[in-house]
Amino acid sequence: MNLAGKQLLLGLTGSIACYKSAELTRLLTQAGVTVQVTMTEAATQFITPATMQALSGNPVYIRLCDTRIDSNMLHIDLSRRVDAIVIAPASADFIAKLAHGLCNDLLSTLVIARDCPLLVVPAMNSQMWQNSVTQRNIAQLHADGIMVLGPDTGLQACGEIGNGRMIEPETVYEEIIALFQPKKLAGQRVLITAGSTFEPIDPVRGITNRSSGKMGFALARAAAQAGARVHLISGLVTLFKTPWGTSRENVQTAQQMYDAVMESVYDTDIFISVAAVADWRAVQVSEHKIKKTAGQLPPPMYFIENPDILASVAALPAPPYCVGFAAESSELRMNGEAKRRRKNVPLLIGNLGPKTFGKDGNEVVLFDADGSTPLPRADKQSLARTLVDEIARRVLGSSTPLSSSGL
Ligand code: C5P
């Protein structure tokens, strides 16, 4: 699901982190969300209503009585229009008001009048955050079913280092997407491998496969947004950010990936093997850099086969639901189904790999016991959501199947 068409009320309270909400507004409006900004008087000391109006494309409301609204029931009017309310940044003062039901300005009043989910994104000095009063108030918000996101640890505007920084706008944005995502994998434990493995030959050389890790990371993120507990085992990738809501372990070689998978697999309901695992590794890894000698032929190299991680997991006595990936350079239909049978997995996702390496878009075909189903071309994140849907339907039997068409 994407956010286009959603209506959000973004409340800003008095904190230096107000500048992060400018970026959050931009991310939301670019995704097609209608953002209605409401600010406390204190917030206007940190960022101007004019800036927030320009970014959101909507008038900004501050006071309870505003003649721009016919009925002059702004708190009711605003809180009824929206799918969710996000308070970012939320100051210690505003959190205290929320916890105790005080409503003496527009934002605190419309929050009490809401009939939609409320997300609170705290931002304050670390001592203020740690203070038992704030912690008691936060516990009250949890008890009232309010989602509290963050805060983060790091350098604070006051120069101190500690817990209290507002989480980054991209993370708030991901949490908002997750909020609206159907929780099709709630309670499921998902293990995903991504990226490529690197098999050393000597301290500076090695062999690897081409893979950016984008598809695996997108799937990890989509599965987490669908409510799964996701553990990601990552080989070499061109991405640095761990996907939202997942735990991550980095490995280099196929053997390390195999060991990491085998350690986690007993705690797994669904295994999605996206990694491009090198098929072979050097029989002997040279301790020193192998020198080239002028006029002589390159030294011979000997390789042995790496373990097939996916096939090994699928062959366990009580395997998780296994999903394989196959990047083929030709004959996708024949090779995809043959690979699914060879690895003995219920679902294999095939693509014509070389065309999509490192790109944002992908076009795949699903192979399962019922045949093959091509999916329309999509960017990797949207495709990941569709794939999570398809996996959830097969594992848990929910939602409408895509028709199996054959290629
Ligand atoms: O045999 P091939 O490498 O084409 O199979 C691709 C699928 O098998 C992918 O899901 C990949 O993650 C998995 N695989 C594996 N261990 C290997 C080789 C591939 O898990 N050694």
What does this entry look like structurally?
There is one protein chain. The chain is α/β, with parallel strands linked by helices. It folds into 2 domains: 7-180, Flavin prenyltransferase-like (Rossmann fold), CATH 3.40.50.1950; 189-396, Rossmann fold (3-Layer(aba) Sandwich), CATH 3.40.50. It is 32% helix and 23% strand. The protein is built from 13 helices and 21 strands. The strands form 6 sheets. An 8-stranded mixed β-sheet has the order 12-11-8-13-16-17-19-20, sandwiched between helices. A 5-stranded parallel β-sheet has the order 2-1-3-4-5, sandwiched between helices. A two-stranded antiparallel ribbon has the order 6-7. The longest helix has 17 residues, at 380-396. The chain is elongated. The two termini are 27 Å apart. Bound molecules: cytidine-5'-monophosphate (C5P).
